[in-house]
Every structure is written in structure tokens, then in C-alpha cells.
Design brief:
binds glycine, Glutamine Phosphoribosylpyrophosphate, subunit 1, domain 1, five-stranded mixed β-sheet, globular, 10 helices, 13 strands, about 325 residues, alpha+beta
């Protein structure tokens, strides 16, 4: 690996931890074994990274008042999409290498209905557009200009998603990167969420601005059902974060759910999916991927390639960050 690629690889791993540091969350205790606390609990919600705590709070407002898992996951991740201080999801997300903020998102209910948008520009809440694709169209995925036209037709407002901070970061990147296509080693992270409501129904959502400074038109795992997210009421749900290309190649979230169907615990299933990625990628040490999962019993788990990944577990009376185990220390 040349020096620049090595630097970016290290920066990626570092920045994934730095963007949502588990250790910086002081409002909660860490639970070493969340399953013991969550088995049988309803409602329940899990989401990726430290910002999952905030997202869970939004979801729990819906769930605790008897609302549906589908509404909860949409409301939960919308909080992160609207937060301009976050540079990897929604408004304020870092742009592609040409300066366009393009968003990917999906939503799925436990009965198998799902919707998704890819490379959507100018709309703050891609998850809501994804839900409208699911509920208002005969399709599952809309992309780019078509997704934007659909969002506008649904009454959503066209906005500039590039904040001053993101624009400044992009311009600084341009000076060094000189438009060299450096694929797979760029910083990124995603909010993925899975919820179980009081009725025992599940749903999930996943939303991201994707890899910072990606090639124009690049779509990651997050809006692809089975890759960034999968939910089945009969088994459970899973979501992914990290390098989308690796998750896409292994259809990671679907794999996690199918492993749970075969009897693996959520953590074991996430670990197996990480091992699958390892087996297909000689360079797996150069990037981060993390999975979270919840089964119908209310057991939760997560696993990542590198240390530093955490997920938030929220129930009726608690919301706390759990450090995921990892393949590499
Ligand atoms: N996991 C987000 C992405 O790679 O786009």
C-alpha cells in the first residue's frame, strides 16, 4: 500500500472511531451484556454509533406511547438526518468529489415491505422519501433525479444540504486528493436502526451520505435491502455501518438475519458476517465494518472488524451505549 493509501486507511479507522466515540458518551453506563437486560423487553430499539442514543430517544417517544416500529425508526433516524453537525448523514453530510451531497436511505417493516432512495440530492430526510416509495409506489428503489422528482411531488422542499463546514472540508480534501480516485479507504458512517414495538412487530431504517468524497453516482450498502438493512418479523433485524462495498459484496444484513434464523444469537450472527467479510477481503484490516442485530426475543448484539464501534440500546426506561466486540483490537 502506498503512503497516501496507508494514511487514508489509518485516518479512516481513526475517524470512524472519532466521529462517534463510544467513550465520549457520558450520559449512560455501558452494558457489557445487553442481552440479559433486554430479553423479553418490549419495546426495544437499537442503533449504530454514539449518535444512536439521540436517535433512540426519538424512536422511544413513539414506541413508549404504543406506536409502531415503522414510525419509530423513521422518527428516530430523522433526528440524525436533520443534524448539520453530523458529517456522515443527511444535512451537513460530506459531499462527493464534485461537491454534491448525495444521500442513500432505506426503510423496511417486519412483513417484508420496503422502500429505498439512492443518490438523492437536496432533500433533508431521505428516509421519509424511502418510506413514501414503499407506501405510495409499486417500486422498492428510486434513484437520483427520479427520486428527487418524486420527493418534490410528495411536497418535500428542495434545500441546500452542503453546510459551510462540509464545503470547507471538501475544498481542503480537493487540494490534497487532486481528484485521484481513491476507492474503499475514505471516511464514512451510517445510522442504522432496528426496533421492536409493543405489539411485537419489527422495522428498521438506515440512512447515510455515504463515503465522503466518493465518485459521483456511487451508491453504498445503506439503501440496499439485505446489505445495509434487513428485517423479518419472524426472526429479527440487522443493520450495517462502515465500508459499503464490503457489506454489498456479502449482503451482510440479510446474512445476519439468516444466521439468526438458523439459531445464532445476534452477536454470533454479526460476528459470522464480519468473518465472511474477512474471508472475501485480503485488505479487511484497512477498513471498518460493524453490524448490529436484534431478534424477536429481544436479544441484541453487535460486532465489528475494528475496535471503536458501539451501538445504542433503548428500552422503556433506559438508553445506553454498548461497546461492540471486534475482530481486531
Ligand atoms: N455504509 C455507508 C456507505 O458505505 O455508504
Amino acid at each position: 500500500m502506498n503512503t497516501r493509501r496507508k494514511f487514508l486507511a489509518q485516518a479512516t479507522i481513526g475517524s470512524l472511531a472519532a466521529m462517534s466515540p463510544v467513550s465520549s458518551i457520558s450520559c449512560t453506563d455501558r452494558a457489557e451484556n445487553p442481552d440479559e437486560k433486554t430479553i423479553g423487553k418490549k419495546p426495544l430499539v437499537i442503533s449504530t454509533w454514539g449518535f444512536g442514543l439521540q436517535a433512540n430517544e426519538g424512536a422511544l417517544k413513539v414506541l413508549n406511547s404504543g406506536g409502531k416500529a415503522l414510525d419509530a425508526v423513521e422518527q428516530g433516524v430523522r433526528i440524525i438526518e436533520a443534524d448539520g453537525s453530523n458529517s456522515s448523514v443527511g444535512y451537513g453530510g460530506l459531499p462527493d468529489r464534485e461537491g454534491h451531497v448525495t444521500l442513500d436511505a432505506c426503510i423496511m417493516d417486519g412483513g417484508g415491505m420496503c422502500g429505498s432512495v439512492c443518490a438523492l440530492e437536496h432533500i433533508v430526510h431521505p428516509v421519509t422519501v424511502a418510506r413514501k416509495v414503499m407506501e405510495q409506489t409499486p417500486h422498492v428503489i428510486l434513484v437520483g433525479e427520479g427520486a428527487l422528482q418524486f420527493a418534490l411531488a410528495q411536497g418535500m422542499k428542495k434545500e441546500n444540504l452542503l453546510t459551510k463546514e462540509s464545503e470547507a472540508a471538501w475544498k481542503e480534501w480537493l487540494e490534497e486528493a487532486k481528484y485521484k480516485p481513491i476507492i474503499n479507504i475514505e471516511n464514512h458512517d451510517t445510522i442504522g436502526m432496528v426496533a421492536l414495538d409493543k405489539n411485537g412487530d419489527m422495522a428498521g431504517a438506515c440512512t447515510t451520505s455515504g463515503l465522503a468524497y466518493k465518485m459521483r453516482g456511487r451508491v453504498g450498502d445503506s439503501p440496499i435491502i439485505g446489505a445495509g438493512l434487513y428485517v423479518d418479523n419472524e426472526v429479527g433485524g440487522a443493520a450495517a455501518t462502515g465500508l459499503g462495498e464490503a457489506v454489498l459484496r456479502t449482503l451482510g444484513s440479510f446474512l445476519v438475519v439468516e444466521l439468526m434464523r438458523q439459531g445464532k444469537s445476534p452477536k454470533e450472527a454479526c460476528r459470522e458476517a464480519v468473518l465472511r467479510i474477512k474471508s472475501k477481503h485480503a485488505n479487511y484490516k484497512d477498513f471498518q465494518v460493524g453490524f448490529i442485530a436484534m431478534n424477536k426475543k429481544g436479544e441484541t448484539g453487535g460486532f465489528s472488524i475494528h475496535e471503536g464501534f458501539g451501538y445504542a440500546v433503548g428500552s422503556e426506561h433506559s438508553n445506553e451505549l454498548v461497546k461492540a466486540e471486534s475482530l481486531l483490537e
